[in-house]
Design a protein that fits this description.
Blueprint lengths: L23 H4 L11 H5 L11 H4 L3 H16 L9
């Protein structure tokens, strides 16, 4: 492929700016406590392989991500949620 002097469309591309995700627990003020017994709510934050999604994927704030992680681990310990799916 030859170099074209006037072709600099690929060299100065800006990365796409995505909209900042909002914490679902901060937006919904009525559910202030993340409970380990609400398995349907917790399943949204776990991958099909059983891994907990990070903050950059879920969009949660640090406070609620920590509480979510504790609730998922507690539900796993009590055998409400599986550790992995085979």
């Amino acid at each position: 492929m030859a170099y074209n002097k006037g072709d600099n469309s690929s060299s100065k591309r800006r990365p796409m700016r995505r909209r900042r995700k909002v914490c679902a627990f901060c937006a919904d003020k009525e559910s202030d406590y993340i409970d380990y017994k609400h398995v349907n709510k917790l399943k949204r934050y776990v991958s099909e392989r059983g891994k907990i999604f990070p903050r950059r994927i879920t969009g949660n704030c640090a406070k609620h991500q920590r509480a979510l992680t504790v609730a998922i681990k507690r539900a796993r310990h009590v055998a409400i949620m599986p550790y992995t799916t085979d």
